[in-house]
Amino acid sequence: MTLLASLNCAGELHVIVGGKAPVAAIRAKAILAAGASPILIEVSDELPKTLEGLVEEGKVKHVKEEYSKTLLQQLGRPDVDNVVDRVFVTLSHTELLLKKQVSDDCKRLRIPVNITDSAELSTFTLLSTHTAGDFQFGVTTSGKGCKLASRIKRELVSSLPPNIAEICNRVGELRKQIQEDDLEEVGGHDDDAITTSKLNSLVKEFSMTRLQQATQRSRWLSQIVEYYPLSKLAEISLEDLKEQYRQDKEESLQRKRQKLQKKGELSLVGSGPGSVSMLTLGALQEIHSADLILADKLVPQQVLDLIPKKSTRLFIARKFPGNAERAQQELLEIGLDALQKGEKVVRLKQGDPYIFGRGGEEFNFFTEHGFPPVVLPGITSALAAPVYLNIPATHREVADQVLICTGTGRRGALPNLPEFVESRTTVFLMALHRIVLLIPHLIEEKGWRADLPVAIVERASCPDQRVIRTTLEKAAAATEALGSRPPGLFIAGNACHVLTKKGDEDWTVEEGTLEPKLSGFLQQLSHPVEGERIAAEPLTPDLKVPVVAK
Ligand code: SAH
């Protein structure tokens, strides 16, 4: 195997040893075509016609001397100590000894030498070539036969587009143009303006824009050359190539823009009553994929601690008595803004989003603004709390229906409270703070039994869960006596006493939950939120929105 190369011979002086064979003229022409000057060493005057012509024209210098090594050291260019640049031997078959001698001399003098029909004595051989303008094509069989090489070459050439030379020129021109443009852009930078302090940002900007653009363009050209059918390359004009480049650039910009214009996604997700163990896998996945999480004040810390990405922003609704509407509006607007920027927003709601969570209103708001949410249910405190309290909400022959209702009506008024049903378990949400009002109303107006078993639970499923077991008539006194730890709810109905019998005392209190502590893999999921929590701040008149980056 040999190393194929294309030699730059411009200005060189090449020696041809032996001028009688027609091949000497062929060599002389090839040398001339490569921009070098041929010197013929031939003692005889009888040269083939063409060669003679070239000598007469002064294109070939004829040195009428016997070959000697010294000539190789004298005929060359002065700037390379007069040693000739390359030697072509075109002697006849019979002059084998001389060929060998020239070969040896050249090798000693480090002059590349080619000997016709004698690959083994040559340090380089010639390819069977095809030339069309700047396009050149060469075939070698590594000395196995120049006729064969020539035949193969003809076959290959016939498969090339006839205007291959033009293709070369066009692509070359475009390449040059791109390089010039790039140089102009890159060179347009004012180096003097670079100060050390600016250097980093400048380098960043520079490398991200101009340099990137420049390489993009070269890469684009390579792609065109690589993937266009040759026939098309042959027809395409420089203008077409430029237009194609412009279009491709525009398309890729559009794709980028589309990416940027990625439609925002929203999910409305229930986070369960408090414990991480009550979070659904769906909710966890949503938390993990969010750019922005909008949470309620009630969403417990343990759940917030699962927000994983440093880049995920967390906003906690600033709802406090008296500003619910404004705080809600603020939250919706922050969500909408992020959605319009193409972000993934997760609206995390305590318990289940559709149980007293204004989930339906939020669904409507976002849908009207073009972002219909995906809604994922959560475990509602109304149904989880009885379980934590060992109260079977339905139980054969005791309770055959469950009612979830609120103790808070519109604008603080009492809601429309349910009539008493002996076989029903009723769960009152948002009721503890007005239990003193509610209970007399239930007993006196709605026919509820005063001695109905009741359980009050605060912070159900959280480590500081507290349970008060009592009766309807004593529930108000119990909460007054014990104070409150919101959020809490109360459960009323015979089911409260099915599995847990109450003694004669007015009420009993149980602290804590049997909920297992976060361990193992649940702990691995936890990334405690560091820094300021914004839920503590009431909404002030100036709407400075404290979106906290995690
Ligand atoms: N969507 C929620 C309810 C929101 S209304 C859900 O499905 O659970 C808020 C009320 O829920 C509170 O006033 C309280 O009555 C109740 N609540 C929420 N979490 C609670 C918890 N961990 N323990 C007891 N009550 C809770």
Automatic annotation (TrEMBL):
One of its GO terms (molecular function) is uroporphyrin-III C-methyltransferase activity. Its EC number is 2.1.1.107. PROSITE patterns: SUMT_1, SUMT_2. It comes from the Eukaryota. GO terms for biological process: methionine biosynthetic process; methylation; siroheme biosynthetic process; sulfate assimilation. Keywords: Amino-acid biosynthesis, Coiled coil, Methionine biosynthesis, Methyltransferase, Porphyrin biosynthesis, S-adenosyl-L-methionine, Transferase. It is an enzyme of class 2 (transferase). It catalyses: uroporphyrinogen III + 2 S-adenosyl-L-methionine = precorrin-2 + 2 S-adenosyl-L-homocysteine + H(+). Pfam families: NAD_binding_7, TP_methylase. Residues 231-262 form a coiled coil. The keyword Amino-acid biosynthesis applies. Residues 266-475 form the Tetrapyrrole methylase domain. Signal peptide: none annotated. NCBIfam families: cobA_cysG_Cterm. PANTHER family: SIROHEME SYNTHASE-RELATED (PTHR45790), UROPORPHYRINOGEN-III C-METHYLTRANSFERASE (PTHR45790:SF6). Belongs to the precorrin methyltransferase family. Siroheme synthase involved in methionine biosynthesis. This is uroporphyrinogen-III C-methyltransferase. It comes from Candidozyma pseudohaemuli. The lineage of its organism: Eukaryota, Fungi, Dikarya, Ascomycota, Saccharomycotina.
